[in-house]
Amino acid sequence: MSWDFLVPVCIGDLVKTGGINQYVVQDVASPKQIPQCLSRFKAELRSKGPMCILQHFDTGYSLLQHSKSVELGVKEDALELLIQVVAGLATSLPALLMSTSTPAVERKENLNAVKMSVYLLCKLSEMLESDSYRQSIITAPGKGGKKGKAGEGIPQWDSEREAVLQSLVQLFQLDIRSLWNLSLVEEEFISCVTCCCYKLLENPTISHVKSKPTRDGIIHLLGVMIKKYNHLLGASVKVIQLLQHFEQLSSVFAQAVSVWSNEYGVRAIIGEVIREIGLKSSEELAREGSGVKAFAAFLSELGSLVPELLIPFISVLITHLEGESHTMRTAVCEVLGDILVRVLCGDGLDEAGKADRDRFFDTLQEHLHDTNSHVRARVIQVFARIVNSKALPLCRYSEVMKLTVGRLMDKSINVVKSAIQLLAAFIAHNPYSCKLSSEDLKKPLEKEKSKLKEMKEKLIGKVPVAVIKASELWAAMEPELLETVIAELEPRADSEGEKEGEEDEDEDDRTTGVKIAQCLRDNKYRNAVRLCIKAHRCFPESDIFSRLSTLSSETLMDTLAFIFKGSDEDSADVSQNLPPTPQKEKEGDESEVKKQEMLVQYLTDTEAFALQVEKAIAVINTMLYWKTTSVVQEAVQFCVTVCEFSVANSISGVRKMLPLVWSTDAAIKDAVVQAYRRLYLNPQGDSIRTKAQTLVDNLSELMVDASLGTIQCLEEIVQEFFGSGSSLQSTVIQVLWERFTGKRETSSLHRRAALLLLGMAARSEREVVLSNLDTLCSVALGEKVTEDFLLARDTVMTICSITDHVRQSKGAPFRLPQEHQLFTALSHAIAEGVVMEDPFWQSFMEQAVRLIYFLAESPDQLCSRLLQRCARLLLDQIADSGEMNKNSVQEGSQDSEQGEQVSSVCLAQLLGLCGCVAFWQVSHLERSVSAELRRRRGETEEREEKDKGPSKSKQTANESAMEEELGLMGASAEDTEAELIRKICETELLAEENLLCAFLPLLVKVCSSPGRYSHPQLTTAACLALSQFMMISPSTCEENLRLMFTVLERSSLPVVRANGIIALGDLTVRFPNILEPWTQNLYARLGDEEPSVRQTAVTVLTQLVLKDVLKVKGQISEVALLLIDPEPHIASLALNFFNELSSKDNAIYNLLPDIISRLSDPERGMNSEDFNIIMKQLFSYITKERQTESLVEKLCQRFRTAKTERQWCDLAVSLSLLSMCERGFKRLQECWECYSDKLTEPGVYQPLLTIMAKLRRGAKAQFKAQVDEFEKRLTAVHTKGLENVESPEMEEENQKAEKTALHTPLPARGRPKPKKGQRKASSSHADDSFVTPRNTRKSKKTMITFSSDEEDEEDAVMTENETPKVTTPIARTSRRTRLRN
């Protein structure tokens, strides 16, 4: 073969005559001839093998040249043939490559075959990929028609793509470089293959799961090219280029770089790519189309795959933390997180690793305060991953925890949610004991701190001793000791020896050795030597003195050295008994101090952690009622986590989220229900009995000391459990009955909790309580009922769960006869308690009377006898106490006042019973009796319908249809029933023959004589009972209304005033026309000096206003004052009032001008700071542009009537709080004359400058020029005065500016005043009442009056002629009544 195939730059170069021996295409077949050529190619491939490509290359070239004209099937056949050629070459080449004696011609033929086949396969693949992508764009999904045929080849190409890559990988995995001279593969050939790979990567679906085989094939093919064919630099450049244009490739290239680094060992690719990304400047990344998102996603993904390989290049990436791109900052922080989690963790790090770890943690902590909320949220998520992986060092727990708690106040919702999740992770993986609160940790910490202080003082107080080794001491004493030994070995007197021998005969060898060592330390050498010689005689078999078998100076010195210095092997036992040296003592003390320091540090960290947890719980508990659903869900999940880990105070959040079961948001309600089910209704245990006991214990703990509202919320969850058909139900109910009856020993609180849980179960199944009614009566309402009225009250509440009022039954009412044991026990308990002073009797009595009216037949008769019985008992007690007082007075005793005090309490209890009976009697008539009348009437009508023949049914149907169309069906009967109930209330309930009538004068007397009846409980009970009597009829209400308001205003008892507000609120709902003139007196209680009264007043008025019972008037300014109330709870109630009021159309908008004027009244004396706080909150509800525009005009007009500088300043501040737009600015310009003469005041000028600054932000150039011009005008008037600035020339300039200014369509307004006035008079806007008209006359009054004040309201006083009259009757007629009239 005399020619070489050179890979062309473009396909057309192959037909041009090139260099010497260069292959040129000779025969280009037409599109019609190509199928025949392919058939010959196929035949020769079968016979000759892959080398036939040398003769049929022109066929492949012709296909590429006419690709647009050739059918898709022909292309697929050609692709299949080329795949077979490449696969055949991959099979035949290994033998050639391994041979060392291959002829050059054969090698050249194989090289040309490889080049030709690879070139054709790559180009054809690129062409098919382009066609496939183009077809996916042109052909819409699900569409048929003509374009359906063109898309038939797309699925085949998707499957063939994998075969192409597989064949190329098989070929290039061979070392085909030896086919080239000097193994130098030309760049064009490598580019041909790699370009095909990159072309395939541009497919939008390459990152999908279904494309994984194709993706893996491309990655491995490129890996081979990088490793064997020097494609490293080209690949790194191509990765950057493709990331800039194809964002979906970020995860693909991250996986590719990971594979190339690990499987192919080309780690330099990471450095090249990271360096290219690091060199990107902030300005370049800020440009659109820079691929910053793809770069960030690539780094994040790569960090999760090979974090250990990124550490050498992290300094390049950290530069992006100072850049403007928050996306890159996020990615770098995620990379740091992955490195900390998977590489720089554990205790085995060297010093360099620890330094890097600390540096990375410092960087992440800094970016917890990043300017961008996305970065802050992602960094918190990174820390959550670190904590969950237990990779956070103990020394950083407190610091990161503190920063996270601070992020709970972040303005970004995502940051807040991430912070809650991180705190939950901290608690779940904390190394401390969360069961202890900070209060419990204080005492142990102080104790250990004081102990550490004593140890340090003791250590410092010791005389420092030079640390000298025993060997050094021995060397120093050895010469002198040797002389002493020699001297002692000389003969001596026997008497001295015998004398020494008599001493210490009872000592053992160890004790003797210790004495010898001590003598040597004390320089008593002679005694030491003598003891050693003596010990040899006494303990000849001892290991210590075994060296003295032959007594000589050498053996004696060796023994003394052994005893003094010790031996690593032989003297272990001896050294334990030797006295410690000063060095050892000091070392031991220092180690103890270090241990104590570690303990103190641990307790300190634990306390700091506990404090942060308590702070976090307090903050997150407030988030349970945020408006953002996702935040509430995270807060609920956090409360569950802290409760599961038994964190101190965790139960507070669990109880606080309980009312959310009534949330209108289904997601929040479901989250709370699931939380309680997870915490309390899914107990763990080995048996059903154990699970039931655990469940009851959990619910009982939750109900102990719970409020009535909490119990009502818990009913919803418990009722769902008992209605779910759980296998635990019967066992749970059995355990509850055992606790209540005392079969299982339990506390009184848990006994009452079990009782209430039985009542909740009875709401789902009445028989739970009804079948055990006798047990309830005998246990809780028996002879010992007076000992525990709380248990009796809860028993009554449990029995109430079986009544129709709770179950809303539609059938015949379920009632028990008067002679039933239950009512006998209740009557006895009430009568016995009325003459006692039990503080819980009152609540029991109220529930008992309620149950009697719900469950008894003819409850009025039963309660009448009960009242008579109680009154008789009280009279008997008064008579008895009177006799005792009479006797004591005769005997000179002074205890008469005490007897009166006791009778006052009893009288208060009797009056409370009367009021309760009166209230429930009215409720019984209007609910139970009325409902029974309707039910009976319905049954009668049904019977009449059945009795009527079919002939009359048609006529009746026509009549009923006509009545229904007119709204009159059943109207007559219902009105008759309602009239009957009203008549009974007005004429019979307080008639002389009715027992209630006898108590009304007594109530009036007690309430109207506070000086005589000064007992607090009596006054409270009397006022409450009187208000309940006033509910009976309008006449009773009118007669005693003035007395009630007098008590409300003049009573010295806060509880009386608070109860009075609640009672009068109920009366306002029942008799609105009677209470309407007294509205001002209700609002007056908002300024009460007692916080509890103010709280009650704002709660009651909120309900009345929001339910449209009370008309919204100017007194709303009194509610606005509560926004700055010193009591946070009252301020939150006021805020809630305005939040709810803002949902009503234009309510706050209509009231704002009047509220501003009332609050800025000089007589009120409000300081400017409080005024600004209130106005800032109220103006936050003004969001509509038209409202803002109108308010600008109204507030500007008020400048004319404002008389003091303070009022001018308040109006200017109010203007600055509006979110003003271009239209509002035009209004401000038009009202120049209203405020221009006040601009010399800084308090007016500065707020207007603030408005100009707000308008300038983000404004267009032309509008910004107008704002600047107007600001210059303001400044000129402020500095020089209005009279020195205004001139005809400036007026002409202003008129020109107004004509040329761009503005939205507005009613045309001219400069002359008369025209302006005419336009204002002609406009019929609903808010014109707030615009103060210009008046040339001076007002005689010093106070400011407003046109929005509809009436002058006066305070209620005792005189009859000053009693408010009804001015605005409120009609309460129904639709049927109006139609009938």
From TrEMBL:
Listed Basic and acidic residues bias regions: 489-498, 583-592, 931-950
The residues covered by the Condensin complex subunit 1 C-terminal domain are: 1055-1215
GO CC annotation terms, alphabetical: condensed chromosome, centromeric region; condensin complex; cytoplasm; nucleus
Which GO MF term does the entry hold, naming one?
A: histone binding
Domain Condensin complex subunit 1 N-terminal, first and last residues per copy: 74-235
Feature: compositional bias, Acidic residues: 499-509, 1348-1357
Q: Which residue intervals make up region (Disordered)?
A: 489-512, 570-592, 931-966, 1279-1381
One protein family per Pfam: Cnd1_N
Q: Does the keyword Nucleus apply?
A: yes
Q: List the Gene3D superfamilies hit by this protein, alphabetically.
A: Leucine-rich Repeat Variant (1.25.10.10)
Q: Where in the cell is it found?
A: Chromosome; Cytoplasm; Nucleus
Supply the alphabetized keyword list: Cell cycle, Cell division, Chromosome, Cytoplasm, DNA condensation, Mitosis, Nucleus, Phosphoprotein
* PANTHER family xrefs: CONDENSIN, CONDENSIN COMPLEX SUBUNIT 1
Q: Which family does it belong to?
A: Belongs to the CND1 (condensin subunit 1) family.
Name the job this protein performs: Regulatory subunit of the condensin complex, a complex required for conversion of interphase chromatin into mitotic-like condense chromosomes. The condensin complex probably introduces positive supercoils into relaxed DNA in the presence of type I topoisomerases and converts nicked DNA into positive knotted forms in the presence of type II topoisomerases.
Record's protein name: Condensin complex subunit 1
Native source species: Knipowitschia caucasica
